[in-house]
TrEMBL record:
It comes from the Bacteria. Residues 32-121 form the Chorismate mutase domain. InterPro entries: Chorismate_II_sf, CM_dom_sf, CM_II_prokaryot. This is Chorismate mutase. It holds the Pfam family CM_2. Residues 1-33 are annotated as: Disordered. It comes from Actinomadura yumaensis. PROSITE patterns: CHORISMATE_MUT_2.
């Protein structure tokens, strides 16, 4: 079975997002081998951070939609069991970080998303 996070769905040709991704991003999720020099390593980190920023923005937008769809949204409707399952699934893909560190990372991501959702809903009333 192919891994949807690393394998192009069309059997090898670059996907549209790899050719003309958001903000000109062309990051491959499976990435090249470790960079050899400090500038190369920093450039690789900058590229990953640019992709992370786009994904975090997208995630926050979708999390805001979820808050409107749930019977109780926002911080009041926080769902620790759902958050635990998210971290557990991510830990399978990020074994060197592991569940404990990912849990701290995702708590910050989720809280930032909920705050941004509150800001959005305040601006639209
Ligand atoms: C998005 C939801 O609301 C909250 C935010 C979550 C998230 O950002 O992933 C997960 C669970 C909830 O605490 C949800 O319930 O799915």
């Amino acid at each position: 079975m192919t891994d949807p996070t690393t394998e192009p769905a069309n059997g090898g040709a670059p996907r549209a997002a790899e050719q003309h991704g958001p903000a000109g991003l062309t990051l491959r999720l499976d990435g090249p081998a470790a960079p050899a020099t400090l500038p190369e390593a920093r450039a690789a980190i900058d590229e990953i951070d640019a992709a992370l920023a786009v994904l975090l923005e997208r995630r926050a937008g979708i999390a805001a939609v979820v808050q409107r769809l749930k019977p109780v949204g926002g911080f009041a409707g926080r769902d620790p069991e759902r958050e635990r399952r998210i971290v557990e699934a991510m830990a399978l893909r990020a074994p060197s970080l592991g569940a404990e560190r990912l849990s701290r990372i995702m708590a910050a991501v989720i809280e930032a998303g909920l705050e941004a959702a509150e800001d959005r809903s305040r601006r639209t009333v």
